[in-house]
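WARN no homologs supplied; continuing
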Amino acid sequence: MNNAKWTKEDVDKTVKIILRAKEKRTSFVRFLDQIVYLSVFIVALIINFVISIVLVPILVVFHGFWLYVMIAILAFSFGLLFEVLIRDIENLEIRHHVLNIIAIPSIAVINLLIIGAIAVFTRDTLLLNLPHHPLVEGLVYAVFFILPYLYRQFFKKRRFK
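OK structure emitted
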């Protein structure tokens, strides 16, 4: 079995079986698929907000290059976690991928704008002289957050086709 090669007919037959199985799913199974996806999405939003709160002390303590490195590490780590969770959910439709690519980074940017404003307030209250740019910080977070997902969608999948 280790040296078995798949013929084109074997591959075509397997793909047809998988497509037929997806078409024959009951409405209850489709409903459960939606529940699983929405649960992962909501958990991702909550974790995203928690990470934003964790960034407040980082925004106050770090500045310049090291601030962006810390934001990039946190964003990439969470993006990787989210990508692994999404990858394990079967039967994602195009609308789910569009939502993943647009909504999560947008919410991340909004969270970081809010947290950035809180960090600036904290900095001003403590009379610290640290320059911050919440929009740039939010964009860095969003870009590094979405990188693992984009890598999987555009590079890793293409390699096997």
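The radius of gyration is 21 Å.
OK
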